[in-house]
Amino acid sequence: MAEAKTQMTDASVAAYLGAIEPPAKRAEAEVIDALFRKVTGHAPRMWGASLIGYGEYRTTYASGRDVHWMRAGFSPRKAKHSLYLMGGYCDDLAAAGHAEAMARLGKHSVGKSCLYINKLADVDLAVLEEIIAADWEAMLRIYPES
Fold first, then answer.
1. Contact status, residue 51 vs residue 11, Cβ threshold 8 Å
2. Is the pTM value of this prediction over 0.85?
3. Domain residue spans in the chain?
4. CA distance 35 to 12
């Protein structure tokens, strides 16, 4: 079975964050990093060249494909911050809880397992923390840490 293209690396998260331009995007990425660290209790690791992940898990899809991936994470993309919230993707209970919180979050958009935020001023950071925490709890329930 082929490995995922995006793998965990030994690259420095601090160096990556420090190189983000413009400075306003860098400052927001540092806030998001601090929020994920607070909620997860995990130090971040780089996944590929631009994903910052917290924790990791392994699973096997119904197709038989083995997956090694971050439990949660984000990427400070040029246009939007992309937050990877796997719990809402993997768990119907978490997904249902996200709907109510997302209504209170502020301006955002969503993908299958991603939350997209243009800038942090557009959202309520306390609600964002609540969403990340609920998602993290779902991942721990589905994929307990060993």
1. no
2. yes
3. 23-142
4. 18
Partners of 46 in the β-ladder? 52
- The Cα–Cα gap between 140 and 12 comes to 26
Instruction: Kindly indicate the confidence band of residue 1, based on its pLDDT and cuts at 50, 70 and 90.
Output: very low
Provide the sign of the torsion angle of the four alpha carbons 29, 106, 112, 93, taken in this order: positive
DSSP string over 8-76: B----HHHHHHT-SSHHHHHHHHHHHHHHHHHH---EEEETTTEEEEEEEEEE-TTS-EEEEEEEEEEE
For the stretch 73-87, pLDDT in tens is 999 999 999 999 877
The 10 Å Cβ neighbour count of residue 12 is: 11
> How are strands ordered across the β-sheet holding 81-85?
44-47, 51-60, 66-76, 81-85, 114-117, 109-110
SS3 at position 121: helix
Is 23-142 a domain of CATH 2.30.29? no
